[in-house]
Specification:
By secondary structure, the chain is of the alpha+beta class. The chain has a single domain, classed as Roll (Thiol Ester Dehydrase, Chain A), CATH 3.10.129. It is built from two helices and five strands; from the N terminus they run βαββββα. The relative contact order is 0.27.
Length: about 160
């Protein structure tokens, strides 16, 4: 597939500062709860739950951008995560997903997952997707109208849990 190589995720341990994405690139914040099914034998969230939260944020973002027609034509080509803290059953979790780069046929996201009242992140990482037809063997350039939205839409309204 025709994608560029993403840079490794920055972390406080390696001394590199993450460069914020330009303000015009899309982003969204969603809230979910750690459900019982999300936990493992140790009682905290299972690592695979982060993938689901990130993909939930992606679905909210694409719908808000009017790009729901992309579902089924954006295979994942890379996913990486750094797990930094435990999240427990019933805890509210906030996932921020940011577009960081729009390539010719790729889209780079960065994400941060935080628990209730947590200053630091519970998980951070990156995901890269490619634009490809459902049965295609390679990628295809983003259509001009899609590229326009992906590069200029800016932050979207958050999807937050309501109390009650």
């Amino acid at each position: 597939m025709d994608i560029s190589t993403p840079q490794p995720a920055a972390s406080p341990a390696d001394g590199r500062a993450e460069v914020p994405a330009p303000r015009n690139l899309p982003s969204v914040v969603i809230e979910r709860r750690v459900e019982w099914i999300d936990t493992d034998a140790a009682g905290h969230y299972h690592h695979s739950t982060v993938v689901r939260w990130v993909e939930s944020a992606e679905a909210v973002l694409l719908r808000r951008l009017g790009l729901a027609h992309l579902f089924g034509s954006t295979p994942r080509v890379r996913f990486e995560a750094d797990y930094r803290a435990r999240l427990w059953f019933g805890e509210t979790v906030r996932t921020e997903l940011r577009v960081t780069k729009v390539g010719a046929s790729s889209l780079h996201y960065a994400f941060t997952v935080r628990g209730e009242g947590e200053e630091g992140a519970a998980a951070t990482g990156r995901m890269v997707i490619a634009h490809a037809a459902a049965r295609a063997t390679g990628s295809a350039p983003w259509p001009d109208d899609v590229r326009e939205v992906l590069t200029k839409a800016g932050p979207q309204e958050p999807e937050l849990l309501t109390s009650g």
